[in-house]
Amino acid sequence: MRAGTLIVIAKEPVPGRVKTRLQTEFSAHEAAALARASLSDTLAAVYSSAAGRRVLALEGEAGPWLPAGFHVLKQRGAGLDERLAAAFEDAYAGTPMLLVGMDTPQLTRELLDVDWAGHDAVLGLTEDGGYWCLGLREPDRRALVGVPMSTDHTGADQLVRLRKLGYRVLLLPTLRDMDTPSDAAAIAALFPALRVSRLHRRLQHAAHPALLFEKALDGARVVATGTDGRAVPSLAEVDRWRAPADAVDRLALSRCEGPVLDIGCGPGRIVTALAERGIPALGVDISAQAVLLTTKRGAPALRRPVQDPLPGEGRWGSVLLMDGNIGIGGAPGTLLRRCAELVRPDGLVLVEVDPDDNLDDPAPIILHADGGRRSSPLPWARVGTRAVLRHAVTANLLATEDWRAGGRAFLAFRSSTASRLARAN
């Protein structure tokens, strides 16, 4: 005896609603893409089986990922136990049924076409304590309703329930669910030809840099290299960025004239320190996590690229590029010109430069996370005093101060037009 009907129970792969545990390493959209690929692999295996009928019990709407030949049923019921029971009831066509989830893309036709003659039920357990399949000759709500779901003992509890009902149960091989980043990596390594495995490999080597930067802000270990693999100390001081402003920061901020715009504000230590001094300030960053951390400190921040329209353009008393943020975008000259547009005519542009006066490295960097993910190349520049002074000329900025403290180096600029007018007066 084999299952006459194969049922796949699944959620529509919508970002933020599926595979949320993958989001410790992947974005919501990437996690949803992995879920969609896993579902496609599962549906392909079911399509290849010898079953006479194929059913998708779906929460959400079907998309282009659904092949022809599947009868789609809407899930119903409150908890997962009730939805499973309802799926068996709604799919029943007088023949035995085998139900599988969307989280074991390594399914094979051989597993699905197993002969379970002499048994009343089939159960396939998963390594995390759940189960990947359940087969019943006919619907039986007693077999499912009330079994605790999504625990590390759901599979064992389900087996106990079936046996208490007097069912003769055939146990299938234990499989690994794709729930966590380590699960996804393991499945991709063991089953490289799967759609989900191919996508996983692409995502591993093409993470958005902002995603890995946000992981660093959350405390994960992230390192930077050049495209040639050489180490770049771009994130070496992330712990300092997350801490309150130190003595060197405060020395730099003592020169600021309000209001202040902090470009690339990170977790907000600079904006917070300025607020403590009573100086109005706004942080700007493209990282949602950086803006969140800044606002949690009670300081204002805006998520926006520096080249987009910003509030108060041409009226800021000071514009800051701390922590090597002169490298943003890999074009220091362009960034300095943008700062000159943002600051008022007599305002200050304060730049932290690399301590190596002669450094002028416009090469992109790549971020690497402990979990194995690496980013696509991030346009960046590492520049010392000489290169920044050269770029400042094209931005009509005149250096007014150059100082060092605590192993860090800074330059202060004012508009060259404003400086000439001041000297003339």
From TrEMBL:
Q: Which Gene3D superfamilies match?
A: Spore Coat Polysaccharide Biosynthesis Protein SpsA, Chain A (3.90.550.10), Vaccinia Virus protein VP39 (3.40.50.150)
- What InterPro entries does the entry give? Nucleotide-diphossugar_trans (IPR029044), SAM-dependent_MTases_sf (IPR029063), Trfase_1_rSAM/seldom-assoc (IPR018641)
- Which domain of life does the UniProt lineage start with? Bacteria
Q: Which PANTHER family match?
A: GLYCOSYLTRANSFERASE, SLL1095 PROTEIN
Protein name, per record: Glycosyltransferase A (GT-A) superfamily protein (DUF2064 family)
Q: Which species does the entry assign this protein to?
A: Kribbella sancticallisti
Lineage, please?
Bacteria, Bacillati, Actinomycetota, Actinomycetes, Propionibacteriales
